[in-house]
Design brief:
- It is built from 7 helices and no strands.
- It has 179 residues and is an all-alpha fold.
- α1 packs across α7, α2 runs parallel beside α7 and α3 packs antiparallel against α5.
- The protein starts with a helix and ends in a 6-residue tail after the last helix.
- 23% of the residues are buried.
Length: 179
């Protein structure tokens, strides 16, 4: 199977062709898209991340480590964002600095535990190596970008889906590269 370097390099190399193809088709069917530079950057990032994302279920892969790190950050953020417990019950007993320390500590532990559970529940080349998973994740990306214009939402979701598909195609085309 192709390795991290192959998947990422292929994603980086193919993105400009995807960009040209997407813009040609969208402009022909609807109207030309005028981009802000960060929109192209985000699409490029989604494409390249998508090109390695199916390996998120491989415990030693870069994308798995990044995913587990994001679980930690997400857990800490969630606990700070929805700090109902502190506002309702703990404010009289803890000052804000002590409370923040505990939120960071608990959020980190929750993120680590979620990462361990994820690694235990998934197996390499399982559900994450499925086109259906790519479609679901791309739809999720489309729905999360509610503040963007329609062509950018489509651009982002298709960027991720195309990178994801390239990973699957590479794995099917070169099944024994690392064996």
């Amino acid at each position: 199977m192709p390795n991290f370097k192959t998947h990422i390099s292929t994603g980086i190399f193919i993105f400009p062709f995807f960009f040209l193809l997407f813009n040609s088709i969208y402009s022909h069917l609807f109207y030309p898209i005028y981009y802000v530079s960060h929109e192209i950057f985000i699409s490029f990032l989604l494409f390249v991340l998508g090109s390695d994302f199916p390996d998120v279920d491989h415990n030693s892969s870069f994308i798995n480590k990044l995913f587990r790190l994001l679980l930690i950050f997400g857990s800490v953020f969630y606990l700070f964002e929805y700090d109902y417990l502190y506002k309702k019950y703990l404010r009289p007993y803890f000052n804000n600095n002590v409370y923040s320390f505990f939120i960071i500590l608990v959020g980190t532990l929750i993120g680590i535990i979620l990462g361990k559970i994820f690694n235990k529940l998934t197996k390499h080349r399982g559900m994450w190596h499925s086109i259906i998973t790519g479609i679901v994740l791309s739809l999720f990306i489309y729905l999360l970008n509610f503040k963007y214009r329609l062509p950018i939402k489509i651009f982002y979701s298709l960027s991720f889906m195309s990178g994801f598909s390239i990973h699957i195609i590479l794995d099917k085309t070169f099944p024994s590269k690392n064996n």
